[in-house]
Design a protein that fits this description.
There is one protein chain. The protein has helices at 9-21, 31-57, 59-62, 66-95, 104-109, 113-135, 137-140, 142-157, 164-170, 177-188, 195-231, 258-291, and strands at residues 237-241, 250-254. α2 packs across α4, α6 (113-135) packs across α9 (164-170) and α11 (195-231) packs antiparallel against α12 (258-291). With 300 residues, it is mainly alpha-helical.
Length: 300
């Protein structure tokens, strides 16, 4: 399927020299969406999230310490992004028949305008995420910054283009993130250990294990297999990218570079390691709730 919001030709031409230098050949097709996404999440976190929270929670939000308000706004922004990206990825998987691929060449180099748009909106979010994690490193911690940097690297390098077929499927790991944020919200609202949090906790554990650990591990395996095949391909591949009926197609020759393959495989390994680490922390937290009914919610 084509991109429903094609890039203005002037914007594409303006960014082409930089993206060509960085070997991000399909990024000019979606740079406007990366920028719009970044502006939206920056504005939402800075203006909409605090105003919406003040209106809905009134004195509760007003009485939060400044540190908690900062974290609340970030979690609310994360909740919006993960919900939107998850639904968009599910729609692409269901509706975009052009992305159905049977060969490793199609999976590694294949591209659809709709899939590129979803990846661009995700990339814009992670640009904001890196910025906010770096600016609040003492509050958020190095693990959050590492995750943001790795996620942004994967999203941007996908515009080489490289592995967009897998990028959309990897987006499904975000299905667990709304439940992570709801769990955090309930803690701050004094609902720790409530029936609502228990139900949400069960949904969180199930979706996290299924989407991030099981599905993520499977995708990592098959992705590494195709990367290995691409690295040892005897000849290059050619792909024509039709992204807008009003603009000329982009024709590219592909040969998998080792540096890109190593970066992708390293990034995926880091993400999977972080997911396993966070899963053990979630299990430990739930165990404390069960063993200690009056567990202090401030420790979460």
């Amino acid at each position: 399927m084509l991109d429903p919001i094609p890039v203005p030709p002037s914007v594409r031409e303006a960014i082409n020299p930089l993206t060509s230098l960085l070997h991000l050949h399909t990024l000019p097709l979606h740079i406007h969406q990366v920028i719009l996404s970044y502006i939206f999440y920056t504005s939402f976190n800075a203006f909409l999230a605090p105003r919406l929270s003040s209106y809905l929670l009134r004195t509760t939000y007003a009485n939060f310490p400044q540190r908690t308000k900062l974290q609340w706004n970030i979690h609310l922004t994360s909740f919006i992004n993960s919900t939107v990206v998850s639904l968009a990825a599910l729609y692409v998987l269901y509706a975009d028949q052009d992305r159905l691929s049977e060969t490793w060449e199609e999976r590694m180099w294949g591209y659809t305008g709709l899939g590129g748009m979803v990846q661009a909106f995700g990339a814009g979010y992670f640009v904001w995420d890196v910025q906010v994690c770096a600016a609040n490193l003492e509050t958020l911690g190095m693990m959050d910054l590492l995750h943001a940097v790795v996620a942004l690297s994967i999203a941007i390098l996908g515009f080489h283009p490289f592995g967009l077929y897998y990028g959309i499927q990897y987006a499904l790991v975000e299905l667990s993130t709304p439940f992570v944020n709801i769990h955090w919200f309930l803690n701050k609202l004094g609902k720790a250990g409530s029936n609502l949090q228990i139900v949400n906790g069960l949904l969180l554990i199930v979706t996290f294990a299924c989407c991030r650990l099981i599905w993520g591990s499977y995708l990592t395996f098959v992705f590494f297999r195709d990367v290995w095949t691409a690295l040892h391909a005897p000849q290059s591949s050619w792909t024509e990218y039709n992204y807008s009926p009003s603009q000329r197609p982009l024709i590219l020759e592909h040969q998998a570079p080792w540096w890109l393959a190593v970066m992708f495989m390293t990034s995926n390994a880091v993400v999977m390691s972080l997911s396993a680490f966070w899963f053990t922390k979630m299990i430990a937290t739930i165990r404390k709730h069960i063993e200690t009914p009056n567990f202090d919610r401030k420790k979460l």
